[in-house]
């Protein structure tokens, strides 16, 4: 946590130190690089659940909720950046928490990050496995792309397909020392997300022209047994899709002009709002109330034409490759926080090859083993959205503002911080209670 002066270059730390006086140079990363990395941090597995929120909320409220959450994400990121700009030497989210709440605050953040990022990375691998090797759910068998192409064999089973992906795609990316080195992978991942949106939109528009779209609703449907409190179960899902806070500091530290970080985050938010609304709207238009929590399951259907089969495969593969490229960005912040949690007194992680490679391989191995062993962990995705994600995105940044150890928070800042905490805790408790009630009632 303590600021130290290290040599730049090949040994730049994972969470580089920021000088007290921020010097803007042309040697660092560009704002476009920051935009791609921030956007990649947001656009992950959550995008597949966005259409399901449209089924619950309806089209208009879904768009409004997406905008509101994006606004509060911008507010809380700005809370973190405000204290970072003021102190200069506090170069990580964990350092800000340590300054405001001591060691317990930093540990609380790191535990939340560990649970959230590791859970998300496991979900990424599970979805990739579903796309490549299929899955069984509710008694029905969904073939993966590899089975459709080559038939069912031992070598294209989930364990072997994921092992190949982990060794030959994930590993070369996660051993990179600087997050800026992932800028091209991040750019490709965003382009694939855009391709996914375009394909879904095209398929929905074509279905609409042919009169084959499903009935969609503009507002919630309370006439068929849906309760008002069920609406709150969608908020954690959408909030999780905007999570980027733990990557803000490492991305900012490598910017040639750190003052551009706020602009990079806002541009990324606008881009992600457009992507989420397009995916949600067209996905809901295409499948209606039959939409699943993981929309990719809906694409695993027998198409009436060869072109339809090709499009279904392209849609699934584009998203799977997107997750393969998001995985290293998520791994970057997870590895840095695990190192801060367990090895805070050791030399910088990027300068210790043994510790760096050991942590990298252990995280990758745990993710792989869990993805192979656990057939479906969407319940864990919902759990994160109402617990650890809420703390990381909303409660911790707002608490830093209210703690105000440097007396720089304005009255507006504190009012917003209180509002964010009340809304975050309130919606999470209602969502948890609604899920528990529905589960018990279903039993």
From TrEMBL:
- Pfam families according to UniProt: Aa_trans
Entry annotated with the keyword Glycosyltransferase: no
Chief location category:
membrane
Topology of the protein relative to the lipid bilayer: Multi-pass membrane protein
Transmembrane ranges, per UniProt, are: 34-54, 60-81, 106-127, 159-176, 188-210, 222-246, 267-287, 317-334, 355-374, 380-403, 415-437
Q: GO cellular component terms?
A: organelle membrane
A GO MF term: L-amino acid transmembrane transporter activity
Q: Which residues form the Amino acid transporter transmembrane domain?
A: 28-408
Q: Where in the cell is it found?
A: Membrane
Q: What is this protein called?
A: OLC1v1026930C1
